[in-house]
Structure formats: structure tokens, C-alpha cells
User: What shape does this take?
Amino acid sequence: YGLTSARATVKHRAGDIGLIEADLYHNVADFDQRAGNFYNSEQRITVAQLRLLSKLVASHAVRLSTEWRRNEIDSFPNRGAEIGYDVYSVGGMWDWQILPELALTNAFRFDYLTLERKKAQVPPFTNEQFDRSLSEISYNGGLVWQMTATDALRLSVGRGVQVPSLVLFGFSLSTPGPVIAGEPKTDAGILWNYEAGWDHSLPSIDGLARVALFRQEL
Assistant: This one.
């Protein structure tokens, strides 16, 4: 197997507007099996990101971002099948220092995924069954109250989104008869997390004690 990767990043500080970052990278993982039931697969990932970090006033900071991701994997060299998806994303973060001892942070992200399988038809699914899309919103918010010099209270809530991998969507191997891992109707995994925590610093030993109560829903 072989792994190759290329990446380019550009940063520009645009005066009062803030810091602008552009990031582009491409990874390739190529696997060839030349013994037993021969097959190979090649997975390619291309990601382009654009971000802006701006401090509007002393107590407010904002980060805006957009991203495009292309994941694709080739399998069945004797059949020439290819499965892939594009994910288009926008996101933002707002950090507000309400008081010297009180801070609020909110972040969100919207993802729109389009799935496809092209070239060869591989049973038991048709290529048309892979022609679908997903759209999900992820979010997290946190409130931090520095009650004393050594005590802080944290409250947070979050909605996480796990986009299915290409294997879960229906990657196939060229064994005698197709082996399908997953299927194209797989949905994204959603995880809700609610948490309350208390931090207490211990300067005498340069330590920190932390207690948290949380609930997760999947």
C-alpha cells in the first residue's frame, strides 16, 4: 500500500477585518493485494477550506468558515465501480466576554452531502440507489463563570454529527461474489451532549480538580 499527501496553506492579516486563512490538501491511499483473491482500492480525499477570524470589539470575536470535501474510493478493478460524496459546509463561531468573569461561546456548522456511485453496477444495489443527499446541523454552546480565583463553573450543550464513511455507505470488495459493507440508505449519526462541570484549581500542588455531570443521547 502507498500513501501520498499534498497541502498548501495561505494566511493573510487583512487590517481591521481580521485573519484570513485558506487551506487546500489532497490525500491518496492506494492498496493492492496480489495474493489470494486479488483486488485493489484507491481512496482519495480533497478538502478546500476558507476561514475568517475577526475581533469586532474587545469583548466579541467571530470566526466564519466554509469548506468543500470530496471523498471517493475505487473498488472492483475488474468491474470498475467508484463510490464518492461531496460535502459542502458553512460554519461560524461567536465568543462573547460578557463580564470579566463570565464568557459565552456558540458555534454551529451546516453540512450538505451528495452521494453517488458511478461506472459499474454492482449488485445488490443499483447506482441510482446511491443518488441521494443528506443535510445536518451541528452545534455547541458553552457558558463559563469564573466564580472565584480558584473555582469555575461550566455549562455546555452540543449536537454532534458523524457523517457515514464510504464503507458504511456501501464499499464493495472483489471476492468471489460481491461483499457489501454497509448500504446507501445509511444516515448520519447524531449525538446530543449536556454537561455541567466544576473546576477547582489547587495552587499549592499546581493541580486541578474537576467534577462533571453529563448526559448523552445517541
Summary: The mean pLDDT is 88. Residues 166-170 form the longest helix (5 residues). The radius of gyration is 23 Å.
